[in-house]
Design a protein that fits this description.
By secondary structure, the protein is of the alpha+beta class. 30% of the residues lie in helices and 28% in strands. The longest helix has 12 residues.
Length: 145
């Protein structure tokens, strides 16, 4: 799908759309990025049911954004993690948008042909959802038929 907003652009950057390509920064110097998304264990509050079972500690695996920035002028390298990545990227997004758009080819179009809509509309028309009074075949694309 086409890029829709800053969060989508940042996600593409963090999944490698700009990795290892020299780019001019907001300060006029040239930089290169290396990005990845790692995981880490984070403590979360036990829910009511867990507290009843006397669970005092719950950990959940969460994604952690990591961004390595190499200043090609000075050779200085800085690593940002978690929210610091997004803070750093904020002024860069307009500069990186063109580079991402030049390399990112969406897999999906949001303007399907009429025949594609017709084919998709036939899928599951005979299925009845739990609690529904009738199968999906009685529901049209934009509402009731």
């Amino acid at each position: 799908m086409p890029i829709a907003g800053e969060a989508h652009l940042a996600a593409l950057i963090l999944t490698g759309a700009c990795n290892y390509r020299p780019v001019a920064g907001p300060d006029g110097r040239r930089y290169a990025f290396a990005t990845y998304v790692s995981t880490e264990l984070a403590d979360i509050e036990p829910d009511e049911e867990q507290r009843k079972k006397r669970v005092t500690r719950v950990q959940q695996q969460q994604d952690k954004a990591v961004l390595h920035v190499l200043d090609l002028t000075t050779g200085e390298s800085v690593t940002y993690q978690r929210d610091a990545v997004y803070t750093f990227l904020q002024p860069w997004l307009p500069l990186l948008a063109n580079q991402v758009l030049a390399t990112y080819q969406p897999l999906y179009r949001l303007d399907p042909e009429d025949w594609e809509i017709d084919v998709v509309m036939r899928i599951g028309q005979d299925k009845q959802l739990p609690g529904a009074p009738f199968p999906l075949s009685r529901v049209g694309f934009l509402g009731w038929q």
